[in-house]
Amino acid sequence: MKNIDVILSYNKNFVETREYEQYATSKFPDKRMVILTCMDTRLTELLPKSMNLKNGDAKIIKTAGGIITQPFGNIMRSVLVALYELQADEVFVIGHHNCGMTGLNPQEIIQHMKERGVPDQTIETLKHSGVNLMRWLTGFDSVRDSVVNSVSIIRNHPLLPRDILIHGLIIDPETGALELIDEA
Q: Of 16, 45, 52, 65, which alpha carbon lies 20 to 30 A from 99's?
């Protein structure tokens, strides 16, 4: 059975039994916070629990490595929307130890793309179109440095309100222990 079939069957029961009611909240974060973190599966429940957050407390933005690589990309846009339109006023950038983005090799990713059917011609076309796949697919060497860099991008953004607090932390994906590495 495919995951989609299992999910839709479960969802039908979830809605019919009104289980959704326990998660009711508004679109505005109750604790007025934005969290930028990694998409790592170990953090799905652990991160909110380790921070004493419940549904509706924070806007949580997840991306590979929990990093911002460009100040005018989708991630920074999401942070700004949360700050200006959704009443958030504090930002937490939270990396984690043993992240899959640590030491990520873009050449290996490109090879895996080719093995799964992406033609060499597509890769070459992107290169000649100005897309730097090596940079775009690069991870980082140090989670600490990646958090500090993302915090810096946010803090120095020309559209960021000056009264916003920005913090950088690292979470242990095994225990949930948080380490403050860059305080507002």
A: 52
Sheet holding 58-63, edge to edge: 58-63, 33-38, 90-96, 165-171, 178-182
> Can you give the length of the chain in residues?
184
Full-model pTM:
0.91
* Chain centroid offset of residue 28 CA: 19
* Whole-number Å distance between alpha carbons of 45 and 34: 16
What pLDDT does residue 42 have?
97
- pLDDT above 80 (res 26): yes
Beta bridge partners of 182: 168
Q: For residue 7, which phi and psi values (nearest 5 degrees)?
A: -65, -45
The DSSP 8-state label assigned to residue 138 in this structure reads: -
The pLDDT value recorded for residue 31 is 96
- Residue pair 95/47 in contact by the 8 Å Cβ criterion: no
How far is the CA of 42 from the CAs of 99, 129, 139, 173, in angstroms? Answer: 10, 37, 19, 6
**Strand partners for 180:** 169
CATH superfamily of 25-104+139-182: Carbonic anhydrase (3.40.1050.10)
Structure tokens, 97: 């130890």
Element (H, E) at 84: helix 74-85
